Amino acid sequence: MADTTDTAHFNRARNAAESPVKRFFRATEIDTRLLGMVGAMLIIWIGFDFLSNGLFLTPRNLWNLSVQTASIAVMATGMVLVIVTRNIDLSVGSILGFVGMIMGVLQAELLPQLLGFNHPATWIITLLAGLALGAAIGALHGMIIAFLNVPSFIVTLGGLLVWRGATWFVTSGRTVAPMDATFRLMGGGTEGSIGATASWIVGLIACLAIVVSILNARKQRKRFGFPRRPVWAEYLLSAVGCLLVLGAVTIANSYPWPTNIARRYAEANGIAWPEGGLFIAHGIAIPVLIAIVIGIVMTFISTRLRFGRYVFAIGGNPEAAELAGIKTRWVTVRIFALMGMLCAVAAAISTARLNAATNAQGELDELYTIAAAVIGGTSLAGGMGTIAGAMLGALVMQSLQSGMVLLGIDSPLQRIVVGVVLVTAVWLDTVYRARAK
Amino acid sequence: MTEQRTPLVEMKNISISFGGIHAVDNASVDLYPGEVVALLGHNGAGKSTLIKILSGAYRRDAGEILINGEPAEINNPRDAKKYGIETIYQTLAVADNVDAAANLYLGRELRTPWGTLDDVAMEAKAREVMGRLNPNFQRFKEPVKALSGGQRQSVAIARAILFNARILIMDEPTAALGPQETAQVGELIKQLKREGIGIFLISHDIHDVFDLADRVSVMKNGQVVGHARTEDVTKDEVLGMIIMGKVPPKAIPGPGAMQMA
Ligand SMILES: Nc1ncnc2c1ncn2[C@@H]1O[C@H](COP(=O)(O)OP(=O)(O)O)[C@@H](O)[C@H]1O
Ligand SMILES: [Mg+2]
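A: This is the predicted complex of the input protein with magnesium ion.
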């Protein structure tokens, strides 16, 4: 007991010496780096809004932004694990293209012959086949890296060329369209959004999950008598989390269906067309929902499962991980297989959104994915990175691009800006980390 | 007297080379339960390499390992751990970017009934073990990278004793420690010895060795110069073995002993 009071004294003494700001961050355990990124993103948003005379921060633009971010965000979650283990995957864009093309052919040409047109199982068979293919390609890369000791940079550089070439061979370069009606929902759009009511339900479930997880963590620490966050910090975190969720839902629910689609819908359902037009909210887009679910699952994998622990341990010190008895090669294979599967999810989202599978689908996506992960705080030296950071990184990248499109900036200049931002962001991060030591 | 019992570990005629270098050349050492055997020799003598063969980090080119008199298949660190062999490496080999509890359980994580990591249970056990080794240790939430050399060392030691080792290998465990912490490690070694654990201790401190070890095995250029019981030899004689490979009368010469003309 003397022991605990000593520690308490010590903590109080230390806390007293701290500035209120430091004390606040220690109490809430907020990741200041992540907070910095959110701040940077808000500056970008407000800047674009100002420059575009209020066109950026509209429900419509923010909703579109969320949909456009989804596919890169999904792949960025996997890229975090790849980079954390000091590897790189340059092939994700090409895997996306190849898997997308196979899924396109499957649902538009092969399955209709077998099952008939618009069969309800088409989308799921297509998606499962795509996931399996993506995992197989990733596992192949992983095995060459882990067991044949070819550097991942080279293996996936080869993959970038091979799978892009293979995409062409599937249809001799022909674009495949249209996609299956149900499959297309994964791309978002008016149909591919869940509407106002469902969005509110999702939002409320998310709030509930936030509160339950905070309570649960607290209970666990109490059980073992570990230090806990102050109660006000717990309240604050719950409140901020719930407000963010509900705010996002509000925005998604403020973006109405376009008039012509709403009118068609009204006619089809025998609803009288009201004076001021019919307001039907989009709600959360399905691809965004997919990306969020993937983000949660990947966070769970990387922080709550043994596999995730091994990924970070290998990244920090591969030799120590090996000596601790971890089968590091198999972990590598699994990471790349997972990356391949995420490419398949991204392929589903982007082919569904385009309503076609093309030869050039996913070109340059590897660069945006890597940039998102790195801007999101994944260290190329290995061992560090978060899923949430990478997804936020993807959002920052997409915000820049959408903002520049909105301002009518030409695409060559867009690339220059994105390149400069990438380098600057990593430089700032280096400075931040050096100071945090 | 010990010769009546079966040795806990017998490494017989072990050889390994890297490229053209015979890092370990036909070396034999053994260890009995409750015994501390010190491995001595200059830097580059092959001590670390020899014990890394026992811990599964390297695969031997030739030779045999017996555990409790039976041939043991040790091809990787997991195999070694199955035989109750735990190792504190000279390089520490801790995962820098995860916290102390994660390091203690690395490769052998505790899990909840749902298969997720039971971090609180691991932290609880870590606090208990670390509390015994290093009562001042408080930084359980920080990556090991942020810790001092001594603290990292206690993490490495805690990890080795956490899983009821029967054979403990300590490769220069006090190299990064101050006098007080070194004394603590000495106490720990004596306690583990009383519990019947066999310990291979690699150390450069000849006083420590005479204080803790029952026997010494001296290596030079990858070969064993000789073995001796600490009570049969003086510090100067042991230094003579290390430096010149000269084997005193009461020691048992090995293949690396200086050839008397
Ligand atoms: N992985 C390795 N690759 C190449 N040479 C090695 C390796 N490990 C050890 N050696 C060589 O083996 C010899 C013995 O080294 P080591 O066992 O570390 O000596 P000690 O621990 O006695 O100081 C040295 O010459 C060293 O350079
Ligand atoms: Mg050594």
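The longest helix of chain B spans residues 179-194. The domain at 1-84+165-261 of chain B is CATH 3.40.50.300 (Rossmann fold).
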